[in-house]
Amino acid sequence: MKLLTVVGARPQFIKAAAVSRAIRDDFSADIDEILVHTGQHFDENMSRVFFDELDIPQPRYNLEISGGQHGAMTGRMLEAIEAVLLREKPDWVLIYGDTNSTLAGALAAAKLHVPVAHVEAGLRSFNMRMPEEINRILADRVSSLLFCPTETAVKNLQAEGIAKGVVNVGDVMYDVALFYRDRARQHSEVLQRLRLKPGNFALATCHRAENTDDPQRLGGILSALARVAEGLPVVLPLHPRTRKLVEEHDLLHHLDSLTLTEPLPFLDMVALEQAARLILTDSGGVQKEAFFYRVPCVTMRDETEWVETVETGWNRLVGASSPAIVAAVSEVLAGRIGVAQGNPYGDGTAARAIVSRLL
Description:
Elements: E1 2-7, H1 10-26, E2 32-37, H2 48-53, E3 61-62, H3 70-88, E4 92-96, H4 100-111, E5 116-119, H5 131-141, E6 145-148, H6 151-159, E7 166-168, H7 172-187, H8 190-194, E8 202-204, H9 209-212, H10 215-228, E9 234-237, H11 240-248, E10 259-261, H12 266-275, E11 278-281, H13 284-292, E12 297-299, H14 307-311, E13 315-317, H15 322-333, H16 350-358
Parallel strand pairs: 1-2, 1-4, 2-3, 4-5, 5-6, 6-7, 8-9, 8-11, 9-10, 11-12, 12-13
Helix pairs in contact: 1-7, 1-16, 3-4, 4-5, 7-12, 10-15
């Protein structure tokens, strides 16, 4: 079987690593995987380093498409992926998550009548202002196999009338968390480099357009992080786009008390997540990783696709209000957030289940 995998953004590299490993370890005689990297994330620490650290096969195609408005970027990707599909004639196209790369891969395959398999199908924030929500809904509509990470995702698809090809395989991110947690502790030196003590710092990330494009929301988040940093060191790996917008919105003064880094290699990020006292983020992936590593999480968004993390008491949704963020951090430090039991994300074998179902 010829499988064409489309990736382009940091979270997709992580998820693809688990599935590619399952193919190599257990199904290499049955599957020829062709990796297509759209180039959506172009920063070295957000792309090439991931392929090295995660042991992902080097892409056979690197489309080098990044930048520009959503429509222009997606259109260029659609044209380029279509050309690859016509050349390779795969049996399946495998897509991940909810980026422009996901949507372009799904549409290119569907228009050429190549069956699509969507990993992380069924996620919903119910906020149609989010580009990711549009991407994931459209990708689900044209997919023949919909690999859901949770029972909630299955129910979301059922509510939309989608039942055929829906499978709850668990979350490939949990596979990744189990595989790399000890490797990160053993091989990463980021704690020593940043002079951090385990359990004595907060880790923050901020990259979503709903936060970074709005000066009021971004200012609320950064001012809250600065206030938290008065009592607890705050490490902020700064996304290149976020850094640019911080400067444009004249918010640089909020960064003075924070420990800033460039986007971090994967193992360094995992090491920081495991060692943090708490995590503040607007990233879906980081929310889950906090849950997997049993680190309390404060999510700086108005909604989340990963409702299980909130329902189990490990995650608190606070929006972008500075007082709400600071209050939630106080609750964490007082021991009132972080009491989850069980794991709704499977048993760490999602990647193998995905590959078995494709075969």
